[in-house]
Amino acid sequence: MQKHCTKLVCHRKGCRRVVQQCVVMSEFLGYARVSTAEQTAVLQEDALRAAGCSRIWSDTASGSNTDRPQLAAVFDQLRVGDTLVVWRLDRLGRSLPHLIETIGQLEVRGVGFKSVQESIDTTTPGGRLVFHVFGALASFERELIQERTLAGLAAARERGRLGGRPTALSPAKMKQARKMIGEKTPVTEVAQVLGVSRATLYRRVPELAEARTRPVMNEPDAGVTPGSGSAPRRAQRDPRGHRGVQGHR
């Protein structure tokens, strides 16, 4: 935004007062972008100067790249009443939704937008109408994509495809795991044979989960006859803490 000031001199007799009057003028700021270093932005810069841009910022970046330092710099310089000018719409936005979002941000800040090639100027009623149509088309496109996605998911569910990561234990592996567990095969060996973890087996095989939570009953000592009342023999320890031989009655 530029400020134009003029001095008003009082020409009446005996009047020596000088009044300075300043008028704030809106400014056209240009933005150009090329995708690679081999390309040149001279054509865009010439068109922007012809459109009345007093200053121009240029970026060398792909359209899908979000890191555009010169675009951020020109946004910092824009003030209320200014107009951002580009040579073509695709020089500013990566896609139609992104372009609509960017123009909406400028509108909130009180900044206009102008595209030279498409002859779009949001400071005029016709230009604002065009961008409202663009916004409606972008919203319609998003709703169509969402509708197609939901329809595809519903069709996949009807065919038994629920999506997501496939299960580690297929029905065939589950059958084999139950057979091996029924044959008293150790859980670690079952997991190695099936190529899954022990946690997966305990989580997916109910028999293992129940056996893991079932309390373990203490078996009677082999040296004691049930109901005899005699206590089991204990191993004697020597003073150094080592287990010694069992004592004799």
Question: What would you note in describing this structure?
Answer:
With 249 residues, the protein is an alpha/beta fold. Among the domains are: 27-139, Rossmann fold, CATH 3.40.50.1390; 168-213. 40% of the residues lie in helices and 18% in strands. It has eight helices and nine strands. It has helices spanning 42-50, 69-77, 96-108, 125-158, 171-182, 187-194, 198-204, 206-213, and strands spanning 2-9, 18-25, 28-34, 55-60, 83-86, 112-115, 120-121, 235-237, 243-246. The strands form three sheets. The protein has a five-stranded mixed sheet with strand order 4-3-5-6-7, with helices on both faces. A hairpin with an 8-residue loop joins strand 1 and strand 2 (18-25). Helix 5 (171-182) packs antiparallel against helix 6 and helix 7 packs across helix 8. The longest helix is centred in the middle third of the chain and has 34 residues, at 125-158. The radius of gyration is 41 Å and the shape is elongated. The relative contact order is 0.06.
Q: Say which CATH homologous superfamily of the domain at 27-139 is assigned.
A: Resolvase, N-terminal catalytic domain
Largest sheet: 5 strands, mixed
CATH level-1 class of the domain at 27-139:
Alpha Beta
Helix content: 40-55%
Show the helix and strand layout.
Blueprint: E1 2-9, E2 18-25, E3 28-34, H1 42-50, E4 55-60, H2 69-77, E5 83-86, H3 96-108, E6 112-115, E7 120-121, H4 125-158, H5 171-182, H6 187-194, H7 198-204, H8 206-213, E8 235-237, E9 243-246
Parallel strand pairs: 3-4, 3-5, 5-6
Antiparallel strand pairs: 1-2, 6-7, 8-9
